[in-house]
């Protein structure tokens, strides 16, 4: 018979179980704290000082924020839909059914530097423009998630086809706006260490780069219609219809599209944008373009003003006086409610209907603009 104050085996077991649970909880909290340690830095910097003064002088800036040319709502009501329920229980197939095929860019041969124009699409909006012997990188995102956190947020559906240390020498790095799927802290920091190219960004985005350690002399902030010359290229910040924001504050930085012009070749990149009259204006001022890199994915009737549907992207390409159409902003991250392959299926049908030259590369594939590969429907085998 045990003494009156002697703990029973059951009590001891409860204490041990409780201790284990407590340790597990502490470990979970520690893990969460570790995962969140870089979140404040990843959110970026705030507009202040000389950058804020420059922003205040912009025609796009009023009442403390940047604005589109016309009133644009980020979200509009859609009757008979519960977007949250659809996100969780919708029947769309928002991921590919098999691995996305990746390629490594083939070695260049017999290229006339004066006429060179190639595009390497790395996935989502990240792409390399090879133009007249120069190299311009667009919206590089190499991290596993497009999020301020390494633990939560949209995760890549395929790996980057090349590592950042395998990129060629870059002459310029262009950022269209500060959303996480276009501006990534980890990628920016590594490119800052590995490359010497300047970052060309819309007004205010330099505040994020400041916080991440990019030297001031490598940050070029531009307003719409402003041009900066880099390595014999004229790079122009052009209008877009979108919004910005990485934390709770919206529209504290500008968003843009980009024109990259050499002596003979010209390229246009939409960034993120809804369809608007600015495309025809940009085409008249800067076109025609040998190739346009057009956003086609992450659309919905709930946000029609800030992302284009594929058919609108084709119309914008024609407004821009574009030659070859190369789609971006699809395949890599699940950011909307449509099927994974729907954007490019709709694009292919519309391009045929409107007699638009189209290239749909696999991630990592080099597209020679003057001799693009035929569209072969590669994505349909894995949709």
Helix/strand layout:
Layout: H1 9-35, H2 39-43, H3 49-56, E1 61-62, E2 65-66, H4 83-89, E3 117-123, E4 126-131, E5 134-138, E6 172-174, H5 185-194, E7 199-202, H6 206-211, E8 219-222, E9 227-230, E10 233-238, E11 257-261, E12 266-269, H7 278-286, E13 289-295, H8 310-319, E14 322-328, H9 342-353, E15 357-358, E16 366-368
Parallel strand pairs: 5-6, 6-7, 7-8, 12-13, 13-14, 14-15
Antiparallel strand pairs: 1-2, 3-4, 3-16, 4-5, 9-10, 10-11, 11-12
Helix pairs in contact: 7-8, 8-9
* Spatial shape: globular
N to C succession of SSEs: HHHEEHEEEEHEHEEEEEHEHEHEE
Strand composition percent = 15-25%
Neighbour order of strands in the largest sheet: 8-7-6-5-4-3-16
Query: What share of the residues lie within helices?
Result: 10-25%
The average pLDDT score comes to 91
Structural class by SSE content: alpha/beta
Our Rg estimate from Cα atoms comes to: 24 Å
**First CA to last CA: what distance?**
70 Å
Low-confidence residue ranges: 1-7, 25-34
Number of helices: 9
Largest sheet: 7 strands, mixed
Number of strands: 16
In short:
By secondary structure, the chain is α/β, with parallel strands linked by helices.
List keywords for this structure.
25% helix; globular; 7-stranded mixed beta sheet
Question: Can you tell me about this structure?
Answer:
By secondary structure, the protein is of the alpha/beta class. It is 25% helix and 19% strand. The protein is built from 9 helices and 16 strands. The chain has helices spanning 9-35, 39-43, 49-56, 83-89, 185-194, 206-211, 278-286, 310-319, 342-353; strands at residues 61-62, 65-66, 117-123, 126-131, 134-138, 172-174, 199-202, 219-222, 227-230, 233-238, 257-261, 266-269, 289-295, 322-328, 357-358, 366-368. It has a 7-stranded mixed β-sheet with strand order 8-7-6-5-4-3-16. α6 links the parallel β7 (199-202) and β8. α7 packs parallel to α8 and α8 packs across α9. 43% of the residues are buried.
């Amino acid at each position: 018979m045990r003494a009156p104050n002697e703990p029973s085996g059951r009590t001891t077991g409860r204490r041990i179980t409780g201790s284990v649970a407590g340790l597990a909880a502490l470990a979970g909290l520690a893990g969460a704290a570790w995962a969140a340690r870089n979140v404040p830095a990843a959110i970026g910097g705030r507009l202040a000082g000389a950058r804020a003064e420059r922003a205040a002088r912009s025609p796009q800036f009023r009442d403390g924020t940047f604005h589109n040319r016309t009133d644009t709502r980020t979200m509009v009501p859609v009757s008979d839909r519960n977007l949250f329920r659809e996100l969780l229980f919708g029947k769309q197939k928002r991921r590919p059914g098999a691995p996305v095929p990746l390629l490594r860019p083939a070695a260049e041969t017999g290229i006339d530097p004066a006429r060179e124009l190639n595009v390497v699409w790395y996935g989502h909006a990240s792409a390399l423009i090879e133009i007249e012997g120069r190299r311009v990188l667009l919206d590089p995102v190499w991290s596993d998630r497009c999020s301020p956190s390494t633990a939560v947020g949209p995760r890549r559906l395929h790996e980057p086809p090349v590592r950042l240390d395998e990129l060629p020498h870059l002459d310029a790095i262009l950022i269209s706006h500060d959303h996480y799927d276009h501006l990534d802290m980890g990628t920016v920091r590594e490119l800052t260490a590995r490359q010497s190219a300047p970052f060309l960004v819309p007004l205010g985005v330099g505040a994020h780069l400041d916080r991440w350690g990019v030297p001031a002399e490598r940050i070029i902030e531009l307003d719409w219609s402003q041009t900066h010359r880099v390595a014999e290229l004229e790079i122009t910040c052009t209008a877009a219809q979108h919004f910005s924001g990485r934390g709770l504050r919206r529209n504290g930085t500008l968003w843009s599209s980009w024109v990259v012009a050499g002596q003979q070749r010209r390229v246009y990149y939409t960034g993120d944008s809804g369809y608007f009259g600015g495309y025809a204006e940009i085409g008249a001022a800067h076109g025609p373009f040998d190739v346009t890199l057009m956003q086609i994915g992450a659309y919905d009737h709930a946000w029609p003003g800030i992302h284009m549907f594929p058919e609108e992207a084709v119309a914008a390409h024609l407004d821009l006086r574009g030659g070859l159409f190369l789609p971006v902003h699809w395949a890599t991250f699940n950011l909307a409610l449509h099927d994974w392959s729907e954007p490019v299926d709709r694009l292919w049908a519309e391009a045929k209907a409107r007699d638009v030259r189209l290239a749909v590369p696999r991630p990592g594939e080099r597209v020679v603009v003057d001799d693009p590969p035929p569209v072969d429907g590669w994505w349909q085998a894995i949709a």
